[in-house]
What does this fold into?
Amino acid sequence: MGTFVPFFVALPLLAGFLCLVLKRAAPRATPWISVISMAGLLVACLFAVARESAGVTFAGGWGVRGSGEDAFVVGIALVLDGLSRLFLLLVAVVGTASAVYALRYLEPEEGRPLFHVLFNLLVAGMNGALLAGDLFNLYVFIEVASIASYGLVAYRTQGVEVEAAFKYLVLGTLASTAILVGITVLYAATGYLNMADLAAAIGSGAVPRVPLLFASGLFVLGFATKAAAMPFHAWLPDAHPSAPAPISAVLSGLLIKTLGIYALVRVFYVVVGMDESMRTVLTVLGCLSMWGGVLLAQAQDDIKRILAFHSVSQMGYVLIALAIDTWLGVAAGLFHAFNHGLFKSALFLAAGSLERVTGTRRLSEMGGVFRKAPATSVGLVGACLSISGIPPFNGFWSKLLILIALVSAGHWFVAVLAAGAALMTLVTFVKVQRKAIFGALPVRLEGAREVPPSMVLPVLALAILCLASGLLWPWGVDGIVGSAASAVRARDGEPPAATAYVERIHGEVPR
Amino acid sequence: MTFYALTFALLGVGLYGLLAKRNMLKKILGLVILDYAVNLLLVAVGYRSGKGAPILLPTDDPAAFVRGSVDPLPQALVLTSIVIGLGVTMLLVAMALRLQQRYGTLDVDRMDRLKG
It folds into this structure.
């Protein structure tokens, strides 16, 4: 069953390679290669989600040696489970929307084939990180995705873009270095790199506490920087707005989740194990991000910077939910991460369209866009309602779930903070709508025109998905999110999820 | 133990160069030092005093190989890590070059300030 697992990495890698080969011969074909590769991923993901398929693939025919208590993994393993499936689906959905959006958005600009090479590489890196079964490959795939994203942030090669990319690269590399040192420390303490072996070794209590704490600290530093949690967020409000719109959508919608949140969940719930100090650290980081992001967003006039600061804020919600360390908390956090991927990418794509329509990113110079670009406006309003937590959009349900999880675990104070930040989010997006979509049309914009259909469609599709994943929660969505949460945190009274993870991998028969 | 202390000191030097220096070239040198400190740490973790190089010949006995050589895995990791470090450094140099052409300076404080 695990034989098709490498497909999720191989397809975008192959597509990226094709784009590079066809750079001169058929530059016009490269955007379509991206669309086809993302659509292929989407089909594979829907198939995997529908079948609830899970599996392990060992590269090069290596596998598990020994059995029972003494089992250990030799070689590289790719693991597909519920948690990976949820994020793979998100990558495929947002990736497809962004690839379609890029068809017309990038037309006037040069260097388009290289854009698509990096875009596919970025997706391959993210999918690889989601499937990696050992810490070192997690690091390698994180670096593949990060390096592609550094290049994409600097894509327009103007001064400000390159400056933002430089800053992003310095802080991103620092985070990666922290992760690598953490992996080295864990390897020195245990002699394992495979996550199942590590989980088994750490779970048995044979690993000394000092190196474990040191490695945990480095992992928090690294993954929190990748997830742009405050106070490690400084790169994000520069890097995300500097990228072209489809890349902003992928960076804010996917990258901070796959490299930050997913890795954090995988490493801390499955490998190292959660404890009281870890819960405190995540809660503090989460509350800081939630409020800091939303407050800093108030002062901005550039629409993409507002959205970028709200990414920091929304990641705060995910972190406080994950810090609760109950099944409901993990499920709520993962659902919110998934929803954030949908509505934030819709918002960034719509912001790109607004920039095309009005010729500016400043909210104070926009107004009355609804009359000139109704379809884009509808999509933008939908995504705004979703991020502000208006029922029945998905943002409402996941924020409600987070509040329920917080209250049922007795964290009243954090719940009040979260509700307050949600209110502030609503205030910002009412302002965005009033200034950009409604209101008086400036004379300057009398000749403005709606963007082409291939740029409207992804925004509308994502907005509809925001509504659908909210409405369909009891019919299917709960199953997808629930199996993702069960993969890392068992319900009370069930055996720990880490044990199930270890058994799944150690139970694989070597070839 | 002294070796580990020195490696972490080197790590600190790289970190200082990367974060505290305003000149982009010095930042890049800081990154290179940081990279090499981590690589050194990785190799040091796999080192076993008095053991030989981990080269397994078809005629060798695997058990004797395990007893007689240092841990080969960190060396394989370091190779990957060096390649990644090279890629990142090249990208950083290319960006620094572009910024220097644009602003005529290598000092990050004298460019258009982004409001982080």
